[in-house]
Design brief:
The complex is a heterodimer of chains A (280) and B (634).
Chain A: E1 2-10, E2 20-25, E3 46-49, H1 59-62, E4 65-67, E5 70-72, H2 75-80, E6 86-89, E7 91-94, H3 95-103, E8 113-118, H4 125-135, E9 140-145, H5 151-160, E10 163-167, H6 173-180, H7 185-197, E11 200-207, H8 215-227, E12 232-237, H9 267-272, E13 276-279
Parallel strand pairs in A: 2-8, 8-9, 9-10, 10-11, 11-12, 12-13
Antiparallel strand pairs in A: 1-2, 1-7, 3-6, 4-5
Helix pairs in contact in A: 3-4, 4-5, 5-7
Chain B: H1 3-14, H2 57-63, H3 65-78, H4 82-108, H5 113-121, H6 130-146, H7 157-160, H8 162-170, H9 175-188, E1 207-211, H10 223-235, E2 241-246, H11 252-263, E3 270-273, H12 274-283, H13 288-291, E4 294-296, E5 302-304, E6 311-318, H14 319-330, H15 337-358, H16 368-372, H17 377-380, H18 384-387, E7 393-398, H19 400-416, H20 422-430, H21 437-444, H22 454-471, E8 482-484, H23 491-494, H24 527-533, E9 548-553, H25 560-575, E10 580-586, H26 588-596, E11 605-607, E12 612-614, H27 620-629
Parallel strand pairs in B: 1-2, 2-3, 6-7, 7-8, 9-10
Antiparallel strand pairs in B: 3-10, 4-5, 11-12
Helix pairs in contact in B: 1-9, 3-4, 4-5, 6-9, 9-10, 10-11, 11-25, 14-15, 14-19, 15-22, 19-22, 26-27
The chains are: A alpha/beta (280), B alpha/beta (634).
Bound molecules: iron/sulfur cluster.
Iron/sulfur cluster (SF4) is lined by residues 49, 54-60, 80-83, 85 of chain A.
Chain lengths: 280, 634
């Protein structure tokens, strides 16, 4: 079975226990306002342009297509760039090829394993399940997910993977819709399933200034954690580098919050509720 | 850090001490803020007569100069050969001079009572305390440096200093006091760096080798080892450079502490793998007891402690140049890749012979002082370069990855896929790829060393094996043998500057990768694959030294998780049989260079925010941000 990935990163230190390789699957149903990985959003291959070394000859622009007023690079652009700055993001790969590639480093991944991230890895669930089946018993597998996917599929994946890195962003559904484009109902459903499944997992909260770092939201999330008996979270404070990759796609990064506001680390609330945490 | 150490560091950093040097001073000087003194008073750079050895500090410090002097006198009295008597007199003269200078110095530093009192004992007699031992070291270093030696290494400091350290502890000296003495000694090593005859600031050979295992496999990592690591961590100064000897039984905690040191961004510790180095040296004929007592010369060349006069950077095998020659002269007549590789192997063998031949009557200038510091030379009254127990030569193997990639490209483009013809390749190389950009990109798209790719890695193994076989244990005409290695020293620039365009797509005169690392323009799959590729060959066969160099962004090391995992990665490298590792936390200079020359840093990964990206692929403003972010680290 074929899947679409956009990167394989060896020795990714913050994607689960031990020494790991992370595979990034392309495509995501969410549109988080703070998304730092716009390459991961589209389900299609895209041509991206590395901005450094560009001599502004415009060879790439001259042969680009304009779709809905947006610049889309073409194969000719790749050929014509004298500096070799254009490349495809997104590679079709079969589960056999991918697993073979990952297992080549099996000897080095004993302490950790393989993490599937994205995009949203559950968005290519058939491919993901196929890979998990092939890796079962050979290597530890982890899924880094927003939790957004139909519950049937989610249950299957929970049955196959060894570990989950589960994002909880916003407890309030209205705000969740506003900032990510989707409702959190199915996410919370899946979360409580995961928590009761006995599978190992860790919860991650992206701390976005004025959005997810508000006392209200943190209290909301803490409630969810308590209901599920979770007493440890990992915090990912927003960093102003989030927009770095947008220009590669000729896109503009326009978060609908003020990114210059300092992130509030909710130490007090977490401590008060006996939730241990680590800042990544 | 105590007040005293702070003052020492401050004086070092503001360079105010330099004004006390003059053109005419020939005696050592004491600075206003000082502990051991014995700084070089003469501000002129000396020329170098050679070095790159580890003196027998252990013997000198435990005997004292008076005893050494008596030994020389005794040997002279026994000697019959006139030339030996003459040489003995040179030694004696030098030793008498050293003693005189120390006595005069003692009288000049009366105001510093601690120093004055210690100088009543050392260097005349053996050191008894840790303070005296450090002072004795400082005295040795002073005399060696003013005797025009270079790259005089510190060796296994935590071993030969341990008796004095433990003696103090038994006398009730506190750990705090011992630590302060140690730090004062470390800081003192950073003074006078500008007077060193080396090429670059900091390239002064003040390498210290810590830890390791004894002949029975017992760990030699002791409390002093640990204090050395802590002192280095706290001081954050470039000297001494720490080399850590590790092995499969090194506990994770040691790697974690070492990784914290890596985080400082100074590029050390460098790791040496006892499980590979010791058997490798034994295969080259070193006695087991000397092999387990190995250290490193200036950078990373493995040498014995105190008893050797090896010259580990005697010559260089310029692999890419050899490969290029075979391509231009022989490739058109080869009907298969195997035939072609046969020609490459012959050429490597021939080059080994040429190197051996060209160095067979090398003469080092006499060094009576350094010879007294080399075991066995006083007894025989011989200069170390003839009289030391080990007089082996080393040959660096530079550009291994570039040569491998070039050969792999020939295999894949010319023989397997047949996408490039021999004449096209030759024409492209001759024209430095001008007008051959398509051909160049097909060469660059071939398999590369560092991607855990069997084709490239097998070729690497083949050329290294050929080099080892034809170089190791060949007599060097000086009573020693040759040793093959994986280092490059400056040769990744110098040798590369002699090499025209190569079949890996490298343009003429561009640098090779340094030492044993993937070629510069290779976008490697990642750190795991690199380690796989660079641990496949049996490294005991190529043990002159030369590390795999890996860059890790300091943001990977920003918290315990990253530090622990980096430590685990180093442990994996060692357990997999890697021989030597240099791990760099990426620093600002390198980032700035990457901004100007992105093509040179395709593998530079930066952790941005819960995610990583290639530095090259970030917008300039974001790059600037990262640069700013690590500014405070420097
Ligand atoms: S073709 Fe390449 S160098 Fe020219 S403008 Fe586009 S990216 Fe820049």
């Amino acid at each position: 079975m074929q899947g679409l990935i956009f990167s394989i990163e060896e020795f990714s230190v913050y994607d689960g226990p031990g020494i790991r390789t992370t595979v990034f699957l392309k495509g995501c149903p969410l549109r988080c306002s703070w998304c730092h990985n716009p390459e991961g959003q589209s389900y299609n291959k895209e041509i991206v342009r590395s901005p450094n070394g560009c001599i502004n000859c415009n060879n790439c622009i001259n042969v680009a297509d304009i779709v809905d007023g947006k610049t889309v690079f073409t194969d000719d652009g790749i050929k014509n760039c004298p500096m070799g700055l254009l490349r495809y993001s997104g590679e079709n790969i079969s589960s056999e090829q991918l697993c073979e590639k990952l297992l080549k480093n099996q000897n080095m991944l004993q302490s950790g394993g393989v993490t599937f991230s994205g995009g949203e890895p559950l968005a290519q669930s058939d491919f993901l399940l196929d890979c998990l089946t092939k890796l079962k018993g050979k290597i530890h597998t982890a899924i880094q997910t927003s939790g957004y996917c139909d519950t049937q599929t989610f249950k299957k994946v929970v049955g196959m993977a060894d570990y989950f890195l589960f994002d909880l962003k916003l407890a309030d559904d209205r705000l969740h819709r506003k900032y990510t484009g989707v409702s959190n109902a199915v996410i919370l459903n899946n979360f409580s399933f995961l928590a009761s499944s006995g599978r190992e997992f860790v919860v991650r909260i992206p701390l976005i200034p004025t959005v997810t770092d508000s006392d209200e939201n943190i209290c909301g999330i803490v409630n969810l954690l308590k209901q599920s008996g979770v007493n440890y979270v990992e915090l990912l404070p927003y960093n102003q580098m989030a927009g770095a990759k947008y220009k590669m796609l000729c896109r503009e990064y326009r978060p609908d919050f003020d990114e210059r506001v300092a992130v509030k680390v909710p130490e007090r609330i977490l401590r008060k509720n006996n939730v241990a945490f680590k800042i990544l | 850090m105590t007040k005293n150490i702070e003052a020492l560091v401050k004086q070092l950093k503001d360079q105010s001490y330099k004004k006390y040097r003059t053109k005419t001073t020939s005696e050592p000087i004491l600075y206003p803020v000082d502990v051991f003194g014995f700084h070089i008073g003469n501000n002129e750079k000396k020329h170098s007569l050679g070095g790159n050895v580890i003196p027998s500090y252990k013997r000198i410090i435990s005997k004292g100069f008076d005893e050494i002097r008596r030994e020389i006198e005794f040997s002279i009295s026994k000697a019959t050969e006139q030339s030996k008597i003459e040489y003995g007199k040179k030694m004696l003269e030098k030793m008498v001079e050293c003693i005189r200078i120390c006595d005069e110095y003692r009288e000049k530093v009366k105001s510093n009572s601690r120093l004055y009192n210690a100088l009543q004992r050392v260097p005349h007699k053996s050191a008894t305390t840790f303070f005296e031992a450090c002072l004795f070291m400082k005295i040795c270093i002073y005399f060696l440096r003013t005797a025009n030696t270079e790259h005089i290494c510190l060796g296994r400091f935590d071993q030969y200093m341990y008796p004095y350290f433990i003696n103090d502890k038994n006398r009730g000296v506190s750990d705090e006091e011992l630590f302060e003495t140690l730090e004062a000694f470390f800081v003192s090593l950073n003074y006078d760096g500008d007077l060193y005859p080396g090429i670059q600031l900091g390239d002064n050979g003040q390498s210290m080798v810590l830890g390791g295992f004894d002949e029975c496999g017992n760990s030699m990592y002791n409390q002093l080892t640990d204090m050395c690591m802590d002192a280095s961590l706290e001081l954050n100064l470039i000297d001494p450079k720490i080399n850590l000897r590790v092995g499969k039984n090194t506990p994770k905690e040691v790697y974690i502490k070492a990784t914290k040191l890596t985080k400082q961004g100074l590029g050390f510790p460098q790791y040496c793998n006892d499980d590979v180095v010791v058997p490798g040296l034994i295969k080259l004929g070193y006695d087991a007891k000397d092999a387990v007592d190995y250290g490193v010369a200036a950078c990373w060349e493995y040498i014995p402690s105190g008893c050797g006069a090896d010259i580990p950077n005697m010559s260089v095998m310029n692999f890419p140049l050899v490969v290029n020659k075979v391509i231009t002269e022989k490739l058109c007549n080869c009907d298969s890749f195997a035939t072609f590789m046969g020609c490459v192997e012959k050429a490597i063998a021939k080059e080994c012979d040429r190197i051996v031949e060209s160095c067979c009557d090398f003469q080092h200038p006499e060094q009576p002082l350094l010879s007294m510091f080399t075991d066995g030379c006083i007894e025989t009254l011989t200069d170390m370069w003839r009289g030391a127990k080990y007089k082996n030569y080393g040959c660096h193997g530079t550009g291994i990855a570039n040569a491998t990639d070039a050969l792999t490209a020939v295999k894949q483009c010319i023989f397997d896929k047949k996408t490039v013809s021999v004449s096209q390749l030759l024409e492209a190389l001759e024209n430095n790829f001008e007008g051959f950009s398509d051909l160049r990109s097909s060469l660059r798209n071939c398999s590369k060393m560092g991607n855990n790719d069997e084709i490239a890695d097998d070729i690497a193994t083949q050329i290294m094996a050929c080099f080892s076989k034809n170089m190791n244990n060949k007599p060097n005409g000086n009573g020693g043998i040759w040793r093959a290695g994986t280092g490059s020293a400056m040769e990744y620039i110098l040798s590369a500057a002699k090499c025209p365009a190569t079949a890996d797509g490298r343009k003429a005169f561009e640098p090779y990768s340094s030492s044993f690392s993937p070629s510069l323009d290779v976008k490697a799959s990642g750190l795991l694959s690199i380690i796989q590729s660079f641990t496949k060959y049996d490294m005991t066969e190529i043990i002159n030294g030369g590390p795999l160099t890996l860059e890790i962004h300091d943001s990977v090391l920003k918290n315990d998780i990253g530090i622990e995992k980096t430590a685990m990665l180093v442990k994996l490298f060692i357990d997999m049989g890697g021989h030597q590792l240099q791990l760099n936390s990426i620093n600002r200079e390198r980032l700035l260079d990457a901004q100007k020359h992105p093509e040179k840093h395709p593998n530079l990964i930066v952790r941005v925010w819960g995610w990583s990206g290639y530095f090259n692929e970030l917008d300039k403003e974001y790059q600037n941000h990262i640069i700013r972010r690590c500014e405070y680290l420097n």
